[in-house]
Amino acid sequence: MIYLDAAATTPVRREVLEAMWPHLTGDFGNPSSHHGVGESAARALAAARAGVAGVLGCRPAEVVFTSGGTEADNLAVKGIALAAVSGRAVAGAGAVAGARAPDAVSGGRPPRDRHVVISAVEHPAVVESAEYLQRVHGFEVTTVPVDSDGLVVPAEFAAALRPTTALAAVMYANNEVGTVQPIAELAALAREQGVPFHTDAVQAAGWLDLRLDALGVDSLGLSGHKLGAPKGVGALAVRQRVRVEPLVHGGGQERGRRSGTENVAFAVGLAAALTLAEAERAEAAARTTALRDRFIEAVLARVPDARLTGHPTSRLPSVASFTFGATSGEAVLLQLEERGVIVSSGSACAAGDDDPSPVLLAMGVDPVEAQTAVRFTLASSTTAADLDTAADALVASVSALRALR
Ligand code: PLP
Fold this sequence. Notes:
InterPro entries: Aminotrans_V_dom, Cysteine_dSase, PyrdxlP-dep_Trfase, PyrdxlP-dep_Trfase_major, PyrdxlP-dep_Trfase_small. This protein has helices spanning 14-24, 36-56, 69-86, 124-137, 154-160, 183-192, 212-215, 264-302, 329-338, 358-362, 367-370, 384-404, and strands at residues 2-3, 63-66, 90-91, 115-119, 140-144, 167-169, 197-200, 219-223, 234-238, 243-244, 306-308, 319-324, 341-342, 374-377. By secondary structure, the protein is of the alpha/beta class. The chain folds into two domains: 2-6 and 281-403, Aspartate Aminotransferase, domain 1; 14-276, Aspartate Aminotransferase, domain 2 (3-Layer(aba) Sandwich), CATH 3.40.640.10. Helix 1 runs antiparallel to helix 8 (264-302) and helix 2 (36-56) packs parallel to helix 8. The model is unreliable at 92-107 (pLDDT under 50). Pyridoxal-5'-phosphate (PLP) binds at residues 68-70, 73, 123, 125, 171, 175, 200, 202-203, 223, 225, 234, 348-349.
């Protein structure tokens, strides 16, 4: 099997499993317990938090472990926006909650308006969180369009912001077409207006620089299972100055931002995976970019009507995504699987959904063509031989399907 669906998920790395193992067995304590077993778990959790913070260039207290990327995005979008409009929430690194606390980002301002800004290509975790704010809390949601490469145009983003906007969210890299947004530039525009800025870095992790300061973002979301950690763990890094209304209430873990007994082993796994990915990142990104470009060239040359989706250069090293004229993406996927090549038609999150991808529609792709989308996503272990086989299988699959017409 040639697995080219790394953007959907990855297997757990051996080193990650080995790091986790002691915390699933002998060192099983509850980090809140006041005895040696608990204290040992608390130390492991603190080390994991420091490991994640090290890669993100933030303080350990700014890291909130979550159940994954979806929860990280929910906590950022709902938690930061709700805190900004109420002025009553837990400050990022444990400051005391108080009624009408000063504004989080720009200091001393009154609570913000019920207005959020998101891009037109966000993951459903962000889109539906914004829709929830609209439906239940009366927010206005401004969706900033993208160009035909899937890029947010900074001037259009700036025009959507108001000095009273509660939150803006633009993903770092898109999961369907791989387009990488100019996050530092967009975050600077938000900062000029004093608007908290969140970025979903789930797909960027392992490929791009995740340091919060370099990006200038207020919060950043991650998911473990895209990186060789298990499914069901992630993190939200949120700057100390930014207030967050918790979504899960209870024992006050994660400095009140996310209650519930901490998943120590999975936090350890996330930290191990992220640290390894960061150490390997420069080399993996350069090698994978070269393989990706060679594959894209082969597909465009050999498959009639193939069209690359997403930005030609500002894209993740790992993503080669296409449309195929009038040949159903779902049918191509099945044909490829028969030939031992595993890919995805669009994003795994919309699996089973026959509607054309909202991301492609936002990029102006015709709805019929959008249903021909196929995404190949590489891992750092993908080889040139894997991609040669995949290109051959794709040529054979598309011509078999076209012969049926
Ligand atoms: N954000 C993006 C860009 C993603 O690609 C995904 C997963 O596919 C998520 C968020 C959700 O992450 P998780 O599967 O950990 O909930």
